[in-house]
Design a protein that fits this description.
With 411 residues, this protein is of the alpha/beta class. The chain has two domains: 143 residues, Aspartate Aminotransferase, domain 1; 255 residues, 3-Layer(aba) Sandwich (Aspartate Aminotransferase, domain 2), CATH 3.40.640. It has a seven-stranded mixed sheet, sandwiched between helices. Helix 2 packs antiparallel against helix 9 and helix 3 runs parallel beside helix 9. It starts with 15 loop residues before the first helix and ends with a helix. Bound molecules: pyridoxal-5'-phosphate. Pyridoxal-5'-phosphate binds next to helix 4 and helix 7.
Length: 411
């Protein structure tokens, strides 16, 4: 028998979303008369913007004629899309990020995982708790951690517990690390980072030589004009940070698949012989060796997000979800529940009422209001006693879910 990657055996059994699915399916089977409203998984619900659809239709036609047919494209992404990103998402915000520092991909989930290819196999990582589970699980697979303990923490990981007492601010690592994962606006807590907070992180990385992996998948939901959308709005960040961005939550591309990663030319790592090495060069090699590019049709759809019509349609889409978020936050606050996020993010993070655990609250919400959410403990031990509700839903479902919860939980 072939040898396997033993690190996979360290992964915690029963991943969060399958367990939710199992409980919901069991409940639905036992109670077929109840209409269940799903506010658990972070997936968009509204269709693609018309400008995107139009551009993709035109691109399909191009592929259908010999004159305009295209085979393999550039692995890094078509110039037209990388230029549009550099212009609208970076130059327009005063960030000196050029099109050749942008790599178009089929998703931030894959990028967050794949980036580990270019770092050493002994890197020490700092990860917030609670967190997007992909960061931790991919580090377990890569062998960067020891086994999991009874509290649900892996050995050799620098956990950065994010707590309500500290206003959900991420604490600095207590020991030196190589990689720091930051996600703002945050999934699951919906919290954002101020310019001062991000500046402190960039300075910390400059002083310690750590690389920040900055996930800004929810950047488009920022409503507060003082909050940076990109880490490169902080001077010097191009020497210490890699940024992950995605069309998934911005333009409804969760099923269409298009994202990008920024690896600045100025960013360096250290080889075992002590030499400084360009991380851009390594990533370029990695990306072009293991990836053959996002489909032309999809990249044309993504480009259309930046057209004037596309921009207007995307703004409307985001405003729609943010209004759901506002309704959720207001409606559940009326019950006296402590609610966080849902202002610059499509997620409401709430403290479960009384002493209920996250999973107890999950079962109560399902059986009493027939509403599905995500237990905070599924995002890490520090998420215990919290619960995530998503604003990705129709207005009708959102309003109905709030009414049911208010009805059943009003004391
Ligand atoms: C949804 C999400 C992404 C986007 O992933 P894609 O693979 O681009 O769809 C990235 N990071 C976080 C934290 C997310 O919630």
């Amino acid at each position: 028998m072939a040898q396997i990657n033993d690190h996979f055996l360290k992964l915690q059994a029963g991943y969060l979303f399958p367990e939710i699915g199992r409980r919901v399916a069991a409940y639905a089977q036992a109670h077929p008369q109840h209409k269940i409203i799903r506010m658990g998984i972070g997936d968009v619900t509204e269709p693609l913007p018309p400008a995107v659809i139009q551009a993709m239709h035109a691109a399909v036609d191009e592929m259908g004629s010999r004159e305009s047919f295209r085979g393999y494209g550039p692995e890094q992404g078509y110039e037209f899309l990388r230029q549009a990103i550099a212009q609208h998402d970076y130059a327009a915000r005063g960030c000196a990020i050029s099109a050749d520092e942008i790599f178009v991909s089929d998703g931030s989930k894959c990028d967050c995982a794949n980036i580990l290819d270019i770092f050493g196999d002994k890197v020490r990582v700092a990860i917030t708790d609670p967190v997007y589970p992909v960061y931790i699980d991919t580090n377990v697979m890569a062998g960067h951690t020891g086994p999991i303990d009874a509290t649900g923490r892996y050995a050799d990981v620098e956990y950065l517990p994010v707590r309500e007492e500290n206003n959900f601010e991420v604490p600095l690592p207590r020991q030196p690390v190589d990689l720091i994962y930051l996600c703002f606006p945050n999934n699951p807590t919906g919290m954002v980072a101020s310019r001062e907070t991000l500046t402190a992180w960039v300075e910390y990385a400059q002083q310690t030589g750590a690389v920040i992996l900055f996930d800004a998948a929810y950047e488009a939901y920022i409503t507060d004009p003082s909050i940076p959308h990109s880490i490169y709005e902080i001077p010097g960040a191009d020497k210490v940070a890699i940024e992950f961005r995605s069309f998934s939550k911005t333009a409804g591309f969760t099923g269409t698949r298009c994202a990008w990663i920024v690896v600045p030319q100025a960013l360096e790592g250290r080889a075992s012989n002590g030499d400084a090495v360009s991380l851009h060069r390594l990533w370029s090699r990695r990306h072009s060796t293991k990836f053959n590019g996002v489909p032309y049709i999809i990249q044309k759809g993504a480009e259309a997000v930046y057209s004037p019509e596309g921009q207007a349609q995307v703004r409307e889409l985001i405003a729609f979800y943010l209004e759901n978020a506002r309704l959720l936050r207001e409606g559940l606050s009326q019950l006296g529940w402590r609610c966080f996020g849902a202002v610059n993010a499509p997620y409401l993070w709430l403290k479960t009422p009384g002493q209920t655990t996250s999973w107890e609250f999950f079962d109560q919400l399902l059986s009493q209001a027939h509403v599905v959410g995500t237990p905070g403990s599924g995002f890490g031990p520090a998420g215990e006693g919290y619960f995530r509700l998503s604003a990705f839903n129709s207005r009708q479902n959102t309003v109905e879910a709030i009414a049911r919860i208010q009805d059943k939980f009003r004391s």
